[in-house]
Specification:
Part of the binding-protein-dependent transport system for glutamine; probably responsible for the translocation of the substrate across the membrane. One of its GO terms (molecular function) is transmembrane transporter activity. This is Putative glutamine transport system permease protein GlnP. By secondary structure, the chain is α+β, with helices and mostly antiparallel strands. It folds into 2 domains: 61 residues, RNA polymerase II/Efflux pump adaptor protein, barrel-sandwich hybrid domain (OB fold (Dihydrolipoamide Acetyltransferase, E2P), Beta Barrel); 203 residues, MetI-like fold. It contains 10 helices and 9 strands.
Length: 315
């Protein structure tokens, strides 16, 4: 057991190593004469550009006050009132046409990268939900005494785990999606769910088989049916043992979700590519994208560790 001073010494050594690696990368970037432009990335994370407030129809500005601008429409409809503006573009008496900028407001808005992060999180959570249901069913089929269930589950797991996810996404979108009239998001969710479900099935199977057979025998001897014994005795114990690999699979799912960008879903990866096409800050954008993925997976790992500690304390 290391004493406290020696532990801090090793911590300091690790910090020095990390700092050395970062310094090496910085020196290497200087060798390629790359000019870092981190300011170009900020608007793609948090957009602070003024927001234009436009007229919904033709009309005349009839009133301008510090609190509101009133546009009386020629159509006779209810006047359009612009409230909480920061800069007035039109003056009282101006003739306004549909689409003209009447005022501007300054507000912080989520940029394309944060929107992409939200899409990544949404598609990952939805895919995990369906993948867990599919994986649980397939895992139970794998340990079933029914040969048909075993064969179907074995074929599903073998087929999905034996083919690349990228190919499965293309097949799901261009072939299955065309037949079922699926949109891009639904096709992406289905592909990720089916892919992740195959791995969850093996995690469930191994977790259930790690429980002593005596647990099932004891439950059945108490008069429980097989489904009831599985639900109330076996699966709760298996869940505690499979939580770490399940968390790892969820982290993999978040990273694998970047592949749905190939079917034009604007997730974090696609948002990064679009940002690069707009500002040409290639290194800065991809480092930012990697950092956002890292933040997401790190928070998830922290939550899982908290759950593990709670479950351990309840034993």
């Amino acid at each position: 057991m290391l004493t406290s001073p020696r532990r801090w010494l090793w911590h300091g050594l690790s910090v020095l190593i990390i700092a050395g690696l970062m310094g090496t990368l910085y020196i290497a970037s200087k060798q390629i004469n790359y000019s870092w432009q981190w300011a170009r990335v900020l608007p793609y994370i948090v957009n602070t550009a003024p927001l234009d407030l436009r007229a919904s129809g033709n009309g005349t500005i009839t009133e301008v006050t510090p609190d509101a601008i009133t546009l009386t429409l020629d159509s006779g409809d209810k006047p359009q009132v612009f409230k909480s503006y920061d800069q007035a573009v039109a003056a009282q008496g101006d003739l306004i046409f549909e689409g003209d900028v009447v005022a501007r407001t300054v507000q912080w808005r989520a940029g394309p990268l944060l929107h992409g992060l939200w899409v990544t999180l949404k598609i990952s959570v939805i895919s995990l939900f369906f993948a867990t249901l599919l994986g649980l069913a397939a895992g139970l089929m794998r340990i079933s005494s029914n040969p048909a269930c075993q064969n179907l589950a074995f074929a599903y797991v073998g087929l999905i785990r034996g083919t690349p996810l990228l190919v499965q996404i293309f097949i799901m979108y261009f072939f299955v999606g065309t037949m079922l009239n699926l949109d891009r998001f639904s096709a992406g969710v289905m592909a990720l769910s089916i892919f992740t479900g195959a791995y969850i099935a093996e995690i469930v199977r191994s977790g259930i088989q790690s429980i002593s057979p005596g647990q099932m025998e004891a439950a059945r001897s108490l008069g429980m049916s097989y489904p009831k014994a599985m639900t109330h005795v076996i699966l709760p114990q298996a869940f505690k043992r499979t939580l770490p690999p399940m968390a790892g699979q969820l982290i993999n799912l978040i990273k694998d979700s970047s592949l749905v960008s190939v079917i034009a879903i604007t997730d974090l990866t696609k948002a990064g590519r679009e940002a690069i096409s707009g500002n040409f800050a290639t290194f800065e954008v991809w480092i930012t994208v990697a950092g956002l993925y890292l933040i997401l997976t790190t928070l998830l790992s922290w939550v899982v560790r908290r759950i593990e500690k709670r479950l351990a304390a309840s034993d």
